[in-house]
């Protein structure tokens, strides 16, 4: 294996661990409190109330599964595509809340709901999620990485 290929594989591992770890952490912090997760989604006031509740209940489990797949390096390209798309949806959600003057916590790592105006962190949250989406984009372009189950099980 050439040195440049090893470097690219290491970057892939880093991208998997960053995006996958973030999803695992976010989902893991919310999975024990589905009511709070549902309230966080409802606070964005984008989806019908009942649909937002179901999204809030299901989102933590989806994040945990996607995060685990990415950390393990299994079905990397598909997992990265879904993870990156999820991050884009989060960016759009946060941006629209900011543009509409809502004062909410994003609920990304638990919490969520109304906060004081000086407690919002929209810009930082958007930059963070764009960074996570870029990790997913890297893995879409080049899903091969070190220590991935894809490599061992599927020869990729």
Automatic annotation (TrEMBL):
Q: Which InterPro entries match?
A: Methylamine_util_MauE
Q: Would the keyword Membrane turn up in this protein's UniProt record?
A: yes
Q: Which UniProt keywords apply?
A: Membrane, Transmembrane, Transmembrane helix
Membrane topology reported for the UniProt record: Multi-pass membrane protein
A GO cellular-component term linked to this record: membrane
Q: Where is the Methylamine utilisation protein MauE domain?
A: 10-142
Record's keyword annotation contains Transmembrane: yes
Which BP terms from GO are recorded? Answer: methylamine metabolic process
> Per UniProt, what is one Pfam family of this protein?
MauE
| Compartment(s) of residence | Membrane
Coiled coil start-end: none
Could you tell me what this protein is called? Methylamine utilization protein MauE
Could you tell me which species this protein originates from?
Marihabitans asiaticum
């Amino acid at each position: 294996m050439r040195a440049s290929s090893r470097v690219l594989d290491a970057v892939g591992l880093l991208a998997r661990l960053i995006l996958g770890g973030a999803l695992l952490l976010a989902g893991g912090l919310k999975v024990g409190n589905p009511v709070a997760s549902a309230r966080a989604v409802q606070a964005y006031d984008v989806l019908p109330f009942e649909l937002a509740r179901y999204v809030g209940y299901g989102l933590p489990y989806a994040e945990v599964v996607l995060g685990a797949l990415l950390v393990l390096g299994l079905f990397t390209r598909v997992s990265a595509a879904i993870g990156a798309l999820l991050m884009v949806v989060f960016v759009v959600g946060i941006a629209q809340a900011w543009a509409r003057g809502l004062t909410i916590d994003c609920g990304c790592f638990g919490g969520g709901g109304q906060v004081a105006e000086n407690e919002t962190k929209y810009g930082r949250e958007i930059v963070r999620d764009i960074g996570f989406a870029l990790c997913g984009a890297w893995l879409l372009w080049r899903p091969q990485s070190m220590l991935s189950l894809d490599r061992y099980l599927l020869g990729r």
